[in-house]
Known about the structure:
Distance between the termini: 84 Å
Shape: elongated
Strand content: 5-15%
Amino acid sequence: xxxxxxxxxxxxxxxxxxxxxxxxxxxxxxxxxxxxxxxxxxxxxxxxxxxxxxxxxxxxxxxxxxxxxxxxxxxxxxxxxxxxxxxxxxxxxxxxxxxxxxxxxxxxxxxxxxxxxxxxxxxxxxxxxxxxxxxxxxxxxxxxxxxxxxxxxxxxxxxxxxxxxxxxxxxxxxxxxxxxxxxxxxxxxxxxxxxxxxxxxxxxxxxxxxxxxxxxxxxxxxxxxxxxxxxxxxxxxxxxxxxxxxxxxxxxxxxxxxxxxxxxxxxxxxxxxxxxxxxxxxxxxxxxxxxxxxxxxxxxxxxxxxxxxxxxxxxxxxxxxxxxxxxxxxxxxxxxxxxxxxxxxxxxxxxxxxxxxxxxxxxxxxxxxxxxxxxxxxxxxxx
Length: 383
């Protein structure tokens, strides 16, 4: 094919780059595939439908860029939309300048507003299309090729880096399973990708699923009045570790986030005049030697239970102490203790994921309890 970019038709392996550099190169290839402006070569290269994902690990990418006529004409029409900026270069397949071979390079949208907002919207759109069930788009190429059209219909412009990174994360997390090879939407009668049972379960949980890290963390923050920076830092690291397959690290960091919330409850209870627990907690927290989190939690639970039994706490909040607060904290603390020491014990994917799925509700409950205790401290005459 005269004038085609040299990368077309080649397999690409990036084993010698650092993980971060490999990921950047992979994303750059997806964003900067060039299209001839005129002639038959224009019909043969598609920056979306021809980027064939065989495998994406975190950072280390293996992909194939090839020519596929499927959907190219429709994509080519979309490339002419004015919201895409263009630049012109004169190139040959070997990369040297040559007159007459002009290529149009798609650089992406010009104005998307705040990048974080657009990136998050891009991830949510991909989740939405995948959660519709089955594999209606037939192939990853067709699915990804539909994203910019859908975004354009809704009046915004796709963030390609966010789309491709999120797709690679979904593959690595087991949300989708893909089959490489083939130019069409289906290969020998079966789809090129499916959403797994695990993926459907995560999609069903919506914003409380950690597979979409930014949305998950924002959902946690939105459920509490004043998110604690220390707890959120530990939670952020727990999510990042889980998404990288580091389950042991994830449960240890999540245990740290939960322990931080219990310390906040202890500080609030110590100022709430709940006899005898407030005085005991004040001594424990101010002592020269830090008390163990188990001892602190027992005093916190005693204070909350005493307040509930005296009728000073809303019924649903009182019920949640033993039904939700205690079991979730004990689960998180147990995993942290078991795996925070060099025991060699394994952490299953299910255990690491379960803790993250439970944490948003746990923090929301702690926030309500904090508001109750701080209200008591502000009005000691009602104790």
